[in-house]
Design brief:
It is built from 3 helices and no strands. It is mostly helical. Helix 2 runs antiparallel to helix 3. The chain is extended, with a radius of gyration of 16 Å. The chain crosses the membrane at residues 24-44, 50-74.
């Protein structure tokens, strides 16, 4: 079994299980910390305007991720089994 097969099997194992509330909260906290850190670094390196754009784009990406994970936490992932 190659490395790609291992990653695929691990992804299917993780994706087929329902996410718990704790995992969703960990994802939320991680997303907030990432947005704050990336925005601060961008502000320091490139200025306020670009930092706001970076923060906005990251917020959209993480909101979509959180909504998706919450949906799959409720419905489950039977399509992977």
């Amino acid at each position: 079994m190659g490395i790609i097969d291992r990653f695929e099997n691990e992804y299917v194992d993780v994706s087929s299980n329902r996410a718990s509330l704790r995992e969703l909260l960990e994802l939320l906290v991680g997303a907030v910390l990432f947005v704050v850190g990336a925005s601060a670094l961008t502000y320091f390196l490139l200025g306020q305007r670009i930092a706001l754009w970076v923060a906005g784009i990251l917020v959209v990406v993480f909101v979509i991720t959180l909504v998706s994970q919450a949906y799959w936490a409720v419905t489950g992932r039977d399509d992977y089994e």
